[in-house]
Design goal:
globular; 213 residues; 5-stranded antiparallel beta sheet; single chain; Quinone Oxidoreductase, Chain A, domain 1
């Protein structure tokens, strides 16, 4: 079954993003979810791809601060999140390496392959443009600059449906980064001095984490 929708495609380094018709050639496999994107943040990392000198494959659909509603599930282990659930999307991880098993998926042995290079190596291209040319479909496990994203259930976090899901995308990267820096890297405690430079999603998350530390 194919699904046609719109996405922001980056075709070349230094090029602008272009909104195009794209085609998803598959339904969710076991352990995957199809999410209708309600909103996505724009992170510096998405912009950095335009100057990455070949680090990430193009053409591609980027976006890694997506949030939306699950519209289809492939079932299987790890897919307790189901159709109709509101979710925030974050990065992908293998789930099997020592760091993943040690509750540190941000340091997954396969992080670069799964997140920076556009998808899982064992998968054939599943997303294409209107002319049938393959697009890298799994930037940070989601490629959420699109109306739909096919994601691993591992990087979809269920949230309260009463919350405005279209505003929650930055929780999947910017807020993780800012809060994680304060709580996990600096390990700031009561009375510790802390300077935060910048008040975007990362900076504000750092301030929020520090105020509650």
């Amino acid at each position: 079954m194919t699904r046609r929708f719109r996405a922001a495609v980056l075709r070349g380094y230094e090029d602008p993003f272009a909104v195009e018709d794209v085609v998803l050639h598959t339904e969710p496999a076991p352990g995957e979810l199809l999410v209708e994107i309600a909103g996505a943040g724009m992170c510096r990392t998405d912009l950095a791809v335009r100057r990455s000198a070949g680090r990430s494959p193009l053409p591609a659909v980027l976006g890694h601060e997506g949030a939306g509603v699950v519209v289809a599930s492939g079932g299987g282990p790890g897919t307790e999140t189901g159709v109709g659930d509101s979710v925030v999307l974050s990065f992908d991880s293998c789930g099997h390496c020592r760091n993943c098993r040690g509750a540190a998926p941000a340091y997954c042995d396969s992080f670069a392959a799964l997140n920076l290079f556009g998808g899982r190596a064992q998968e054939p291209p599943r997303l294409g443009d209107a002319d049938g040319k393959a697009l890298a479909p799994r930037w940070f496990g989601q490629s959420s600059f699109a109306e739909y994203a096919l994601v691993s259930a591992r990087n979809a976090v269920r949230v309260d449906p009463a919350l405005p899901v279209e505003l929650l995308g930055p929780l999947g990267c910017g807020f993780l980064t800012g809060a994680g820096a304060v709580l996990n890297t600096f390990r700031a405690g009561p009375g510790d001095p802390l300077v935060v430079l910048g008040a975007g999603a990362v900076g504000l998350a750092a301030v929020m984490a520090a105020s509650g530390a």
